[in-house]
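Table 4 source record.
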Amino acid sequence: MAGPPIVAVCEDDADIRELLAAYLTAQGFSVETAGDAKALDRVLARIKVSLVVLDWMLPGENGLSICRRLRANGGPPVIMLTARDEDGDRVAGLDGGADDYVSKPFNPRVLLSRVNAVLRRAGATVAIDTLTVADLVIDPDGRQVTLRGCEIALTAAEYDLLLCFARAPQRVLSRNQLLDATRGRTADLFDRTIDMQVSRLRRRLDEAGSDVAGLIRTVRNAGYMLAAPARQR
């Protein structure tokens, strides 16, 4: 089975870059990140990406220049991400070869819809693979979680949280990243309900007899981590 589309996020603001990486990963994409044109060029030389989310205002070569260069060389589709919202700037970005344009501040779900639309036009789709984590099988297409063939009943929030962990295994995820990945910008950045959701997810998995309950680790002053690999099939 072909892997998921690879999205390169080129953004010099580390917080926005990591937010987008966590959110798009949770939605089933493989994500590469870069902070400037040189870093993006290294990504593109190493791997074939399906789409670039490109910030306009970058140190060194700006996003518009990069977009023109990518288009001239037959590069991947580009979505410009920028605080510039004047009509003239929008036209310049599209004339420069951008396939779409999203203005800051933005809701990640809006960007996700644009990414999916551009990929559909380019003939790419998100591959939805079954994920196996320890003794659990997670089916993103059917939104089902099974343990030794028996379905575990999870709430929508619990399922989204588990899927987020499974798509970023053995990686520390901050509370803000988990909130953004599961609820988008509608979440209060100081909202601590993620702690309660993690606690409920652990309890639900423990009651079902899953080993994964003990594999969702708290990382002090950092967030949470699924301390187990995930396999796709």
